[in-house]
Design goal:
By secondary structure, the protein is mainly alpha-helical. The protein is globular, with a radius of gyration of 13 Å.
């Protein structure tokens, strides 16, 4: 597992934010949900017991995806049909690999 530097954190945050906007746009979810998700993510990172610079890229990605999931559930409850974990992974890897 590679740790990320503060500079890399900014790049990963930008990538995950772009991905999150693509997900909400695809499913016609209010874009404000991404802002809420990243608020959750920021709070998690600020209160995490390990320094941000020592968080692995995998952990950061998981935290970002989880924050989006929680924001969708909080804002849209059961009215939004959520994807299965396999669909989430496929969407993420498709974006990550540039397809």
């Amino acid at each position: 597992e590679d740790s990320i530097t503060a500079q890399q954190l900014g790049r990963w945050r930008c990538k995950m934010c772009t991905w999150a906007f693509q997900v909400v746009d695809q499913f016609n979810v209010n874009r404000e949900t991404v802002s809420i998700a990243f608020s959750f993510l920021d709070r998690y990172l600020a209160t995490s017991s390990e320094p941000v610079e020592l968080i692995s890229t995998e952990k950061f990605q998981l935290a970002s995806m989880t924050a989006l999931y929680i924001a969708i559930k909080t804002c849209h409850g059961n009215t939004f049909l959520l994807m299965t974990s396999e669909q989430w992974k496929w969407k993420y890897w498709k974006y990550y690999n540039g397809d």
